[in-house]
Design brief:
Number of helices: 20
CATH topology: Sodium/glucose cotransporter
CATH architecture: Up-down Bundle
Shape: globular
Strand content: under 5%
CATH class: Mainly Alpha
Radius of gyration: 23 Å
Distance between the termini: 88 Å
Helix content: over 70%
Largest sheet: none
Order of helices and strands: HHHHHHHHHHHHHHHHHHHH
Length: about 475
């Protein structure tokens, strides 16, 4: 029965997404859903997009193995959204834009737009590959298949409905999938609490005895500490400014709003939902730890990321387990579909050669669909790679390049004297600095975006002024 429920879900959501092909006459319909979605649906879609299977199974694994300190990073997510509303969002509504990188072209020209878009495409493809690999952990446990076959099944179905339905299919399947996985997570929490002898009292006792697993706040300033109040608020804010303010996957949803006011409401409301859901996921991890003290789930040497799928398969009542496993697949498909649509949008709009084909709307729409298919094949390949601890791996991959991308946007917004060549030098320097931190220091990934953005802005500003001074000097010599 569990298997039947999962299969019915997979086929049903694919059919639902395919229905949205009707009424698509232009790339505006395909990539922005005709700008008809209400703000609350966009808020749900934003959360579903940033919440992957990696998050659902990786977050409980963090509190299962440690404590709830990850929540400090979520506080930074809220601060970052507020900063986006004031610093970046107004620029996206000064005209009708399809991608975030059109702003870069307006400020620095065509070349820098292509550089920014290329940074996004590579980062999103690799980061999404980490997320796709998380699907394998769930599907392989449920279906008893190999992990690679599991990735192929789920991503193929996601490609089909994204190829057909475009952004409107992405948004409304996101809404349905978020409701499903949040309901499933709440049911998991309640069932765990019911199964633990002594209930919540036993949870608090066992958590305290294990070194304070319900603890949240850590005030260490050590740069290698991943989750502290400082790295959470500062690093989390910069990470969110990059992921929600410069990454096409989220910006595309903000651009799909009817106006700036609706976009602002969607972004801020998504922060409230994210805080609630991460609290729930971390509590589920703590409860799994206490439950495992009575009935062990993991064998020797098994990855902590397997703890939630194993509990669902072994301990959930028949039927309910199928629904909960389907809810985990729901968020996986939701995340992958959003990434596919945004990767395709950036590919066809941010590169002059492809953008030159938009003289024929029907041909351009066909190109957009086929680009979705091409990126689907790329994600399948990355999904076959075996990564480390899933949640940290995904955040680390994104953080390495996000800093230079955010730095480019901030430089263009606040430094009117910066030039395209200076900005490019800043981006390369910011990326090099972040890679240096990753390979040669113990600094935690939560600081990567701040470091990369700071170096990008500083070097970009200095290089721009140095070049201007040199040009003025040459100009003066010529006049003499």
């Amino acid at each position: 029965m569990d298997l039947a429920i999962v299969v019915v879900y997979l086929l049903g959501v694919t059919a639902l997404g395919m229905r949205f092909r009707r009424g698509q006459n232009s790339v505006r319909d395909y990539f922005l859903g005709g700008r008809t979605a209400p703000w609350w649906a966009l808020a749900f879609s934003i959360v579903a997009t940033e919440t992957s299977t990696l998050t659902i199974i990786g977050t409980p694994a963090i509190s299962y193995a440690g404590n709830m300190a990850f929540l400090q990073l979520v506080f930074g997510y809220l601060l970052g959204r507020v900063l986006i509303v004031f610093l970046l969002l107004p620029g996206y509504f000064r005209g009708e834009y399809f991608t975030a990188y059109e702003l870069i072209q307006k400020r620095y020209g065509e070349r820098m737009r292509a550089v920014a878009a290329s940074t996004f495409l590579v980062t999103r493809a690799v980061a999404e590959g980490v997320r796709v690999s998380a699907i394998a952990l769930v599907v392989s446990v449920v279906l008893g298949t190999s992990e690679r076959l599991a990735v192929f099944i789920v991503i193929t179905l996601t490609i089909i409905y994204t190829f057909e339905g475009g952004m409107k299919a992405v948004i409304w399947t996101d809404v349905a999938q978020l409701i499903l996985y949040m309901t499933g997570s709440a049911v998991t929490f309640l069932l765990l609490l019911h199964r633990i002898p002594g209930g919540w009292h036993e949870v608090t006792q066992a958590a305290a005895a294990a070194g304070g697993k319900l603890g949240i706040l850590t005030f260490s300033w050590h740069p290698s500490a991943e989750f502290t109040i400082w790295s959470g608020l500062i690093g989390g804010a910069f990470l969110t400014m990059a992921s929600h303010g410069t990454d096409q996957t989220i910006v595309q949803r903000l651009l799909a709003a009817r106006d700036q006011r609706e976009s602002r409401r969607a972004l801020l409301a998504s922060g409230v939902i994210v805080l609630f859901q991460f609290t729930l996921f971390l509590l589920v991890g703590v409860l799994l730890f206490v439950f495992a003290q009575h009935w062990p789930l993991l064998g020797p040497g098994e990855r902590a990321d397997r703890i939630l799928p194993l509990f669902l398969v072994r301990e959930m009542p028949v039927g309910l387990a199928g629904l909960l496993l389907a809810s985990i697949l729901a968020v996986a498909m939701s995340n992958a579909s959003g990434s596919l649509n945004s990767l395709a949008a950036s590919s066809v709009f941010d590169f002059a050669r492809l953008r030159g084909m938009n003289t024929d709307p029907a041909r351009f729409l066909r190109l957009s669909r086929w680009m979705t298919l091409a990126w689907g094949a790329v994600l399948l390949c990355f999904g076959m790679v075996r990564w480390g601890p899933l949640l940290k791996a995904g955040l680390t991959v994104a953080s390495i390049s996000f800093g230079s991308l955010l730095g480019l946007f901030l430089l263009g917004t606040f430094d009117r004297r910066s030039t395209a060549n200076g900005a490019l030098a800043g981006m390369f320097s910011g990326l090099a600095a972040t890679l240096g931190l990753y390979f040669f220091t113990p600094v935690a990934f939560t600081w990567y975006v701040l470091a990369g953005a700071t170096v990008t802005c500083a070097v970009g500003a200095a290089a721009s002024r140095l070049a201007s001074a040199r040009e003025n000097s040459f100009s003066g010599d010529g006049k003499a």
